[in-house]
Specification:
This protein is α+β, with helices and mostly antiparallel strands. The protein has one domain. 37% of the residues lie in helices and 25% in strands. The chain contains 3 helices and 5 strands. The protein has a 5-stranded antiparallel β-sheet. α2 runs parallel beside α3. It is globular, with a radius of gyration of 15 Å. The chain starts with a helix and ends with a helix. The N terminus is likely disordered. This is DUF2794 domain-containing protein.
Length: 109
C-alpha cells in the first residue's frame, strides 16, 4: 500500500469505536421502540455524520455530527433535526444524545 492509498482515509473525520458504541446504544433502544429503522454513516474531511432514518428512502430524522474543529468552542458533537435545526451541541457525546433519549420516553408513553 502506498501513501496515495492511505492519505484520503486519514484526512477524513471518523467516529471512534467508543463513540459508535454510545450512539448505537441509543439507536438500538429507538429501534426496539419502533421509532427508527435504518442508519447511515458518512465521513468527510471536516465532519463525521451518523444519520438516522425512519424508513430507508427518506431524509434523515436526525444527524449526529462530530466536528473536531469546534472542540475548543461550542463542542464537537451535535444532534441536528430533520429541518436542520441544532437540537443540542456540546463536548460530551452522552450528554448531547440525551435530547434523543427524551424523545424515547415520549414514544413509550
Amino acid at each position: 500500500m502506498n501513501v496515495q492509498d492511505t492519505t484520503p482515509f486519514q484526512d477524513q473525520t471518523h467516529f471512534h469505536r467508543i463513540e459508535l458504541n454510545v450512539i448505537l446504544s441509543v439507536y438500538g433502544r429507538m429501534v426496539a421502540a419502533g421509532e427508527w429503522r435504518d442508519y447511515g454513516i458518512s465521513s468527510f474531511r471536516d465532519v463525521a455524520i451518523f444519520s438516522v432514518f425512519r424508513r430507508t428512502a427518506e431524509h434523515p430524522l436526525y444527524r449526529i455530527e462530530k466536528r473536531p474543529k469546534l472542540r475548543m468552542k461550542q463542542g464537537m458533537y451535535a444532534v441536528i433535526g430533520m429541518d436542520g435545526q441544532i437540537l443540542k451541541r456540546g463536548h460530551d457525546l452522552k450528554g448531547v444524545l440525551r435530547v434523543l433519549e427524551r424523545k424515547l420516553i415520549r414514544a413509550v408513553e
